[in-house]
Structures are given as C-alpha cells and as structure tokens.
Amino acid sequence: MSFVRSDIENIALPDGLRLVQGEDGLALVGDEKRYGKPLSVDFVAGKAAHRRRFGGGRGQLVAKACGLAKGVSPSIVDATAGLGRDAFVLASLGAQVLLIERVAAIAALLEDGLKRASRHSDTADIAARMTLRHGDAAQSLAELVASAHFSPQVIHLDPMFPHREKSALVKKEMRLFRELAGDDDDAPRLLEAALDVATHRVVVKRPRKAPPITGPAPQHTLEGKTSRYDLYVHRSLVR
Predict the structure, then answer these.
(1) At what angle do helices 172-181 and 104-118 cross, to 10 degrees?
(2) CB proximity list for 97: less than 8 A, separation 6 or greater
(3) Strand, helix or coil for residue 147
(4) pLDDT at 164 over 60
(5) At what angle do helices 137-147 and 187-197 cross, to 10 degrees?
(6) Cα separation, 116 vs 84, whole angstroms
(7) pLDDT score, position 168
(8) Domain 41-171+182-233 has what CATH class?
(9) Spans of all domains in the chain
(10) Residues 199, 201, 207, 210, Cα dihedral to 10°
C-alpha cells in the first residue's frame, strides 16, 4: 500500500487536526493542549530503539503471548496495529508481522515510519519483516490477509477499551486516537473473525482487570502489572 501525497491531503480528519510532512517525517498535528505533541511513527530512535535494545527480548509479555519461544518464530497478524509498537517488537524478535490499521491517518503515519526504518541500518532488517495493509479487520480480515499473501498463524488484537467517564485522565495520545477511531464497539466481531482466520492462536490484550471480550472464553491468560493477554488456542506452535 502507498499513500501518495494527494491521498494524504484527501484523508478526512476531525477539525483542528492535519497531517504535515516535515524534515523528520509525516506527523499528525493539532492543538497541543488537547492532543499533546505532534504524533508520528519513529521505529529508529526514541522509545522504539530503547525497547529494541533493553526491552527484555522474548521474555516480554507480548512475545510470550504470541508464542515466540526458542526455535519458534510464528507469523503474526497485528489486526489493530495502531502506532505499530507491539508489531515492531515482535518483528525485532524475528517474527514476520502483517500490520492492519483501519484509520487512514494512522496507516499513513505507519507507512511513513516503515519507509524511514527501511532506510536505516539498525532497523532495515526489522522493517523488511513488516507488511502494512489499510483496512478494517472486523469487516474484512480474511481478505486483507489474503491480499498480503500472509500465513496467519497468530493474530494479535488490542481493541480500544471503552471510554471511561473521567476523560481528563485519558492520556492526550489516547484522546487523539479516540477522536480518529472512536471505541472498538465491534471487538466481539473482530475476535470472531480472528478465530476464523488464525491457524494456531489469537491473543487479545486487555486492561488487567477488564472482562474478556464477549464471546468464547479464553483458554489461558498471561497477566502483567497493568495489562493481560487472553489466549485462544487452536493448536500448538511447537513443531
């Protein structure tokens, strides 16, 4: 997929937000008091670089949940890619990852970040393991996976958790995401689609104390300090 400049200029955005191409890449810009600093995707430096070097490797919760173990590097679909942070971690650990993002502006930021990562020696190999598709996984997951000629052994989901009343506590970046995407009211349909498409397992990231997504009960859970992963297993990834 590729967003040419004319496409980027035609992406519909809420009032007060705009996509700006600068020297450091594409950024989503708005009122800093409301949305914080310009939002961009940087896989080369900053938090992504720190996590790549010091994040804990395959001992990280997301890696364990997705089945990355000694000698096992499954192909993973991140069907709610967001800013690609989890996908980049998984790709940095050796997995082939298909990123699916339904919000056009976020998909454009991801594409820009991947282009820059592919040109940098520290991240080029990782970016080569990452493929991006813009589309709604809840509506057309199978078609998006097929279009990328991808083997969906594991599907990772991180649906937007429903909005809480104390909106002042919501981080500015999350506020920006809600402005663009709203809550993921179709999370049960997304889980159903993922269970149909994944050959081995589906993993769902949830706030630690939140209920599972409505639908079949997960067979396993992995719990961290603030979040957990619900695991729906079809078959073992171990050969």
Answers:
(1) 120
(2) 75, 76, 77, 78, 87, 90, 91, 129, 130, 131
(3) helix
(4) no
(5) 30
(6) 14
(7) 47
(8) alpha beta
(9) 41-171+182-233
(10) 100
The total number of residues shown for the chain amounts to 239
Residues 190-209 pLDDT 10s? 999 999 999 999 999 999 99
Count Cβ atoms below 10 Å from residue 71 Cβ, excluding itself. 7
Q: For residue 85, say whether it is annotated as part of any ligand binding site.
A: yes
Residue with tokens 């700006």: 20
Instruction: Report the alpha-carbon distance of residue 208 to residue 203 in Å, rounded.
Output: 14
Q: 4 or 150, which is more confident?
A: 150
- The token pair at 176 is 């920006």
- For the record, the structure tokens of 117 come out as 């990562």
Q: What angle do CA 102, 82, 187 make, to 5 degrees?
A: 60
Distances (CA, A) of 111 to 64, 80, 101, 104, 128: 27, 15, 10, 10, 12
Write down the pLDDT at residue 149: 95
Report pLDDT digits (tens) over 37-53.
889 999 998 777 766 77
Q: What is the pLDDT of residue 161?
A: 64
Q: Is 102 part of any known ligand binding site?
A: yes
pLDDT on residue 119: 94
pTM: 0.91
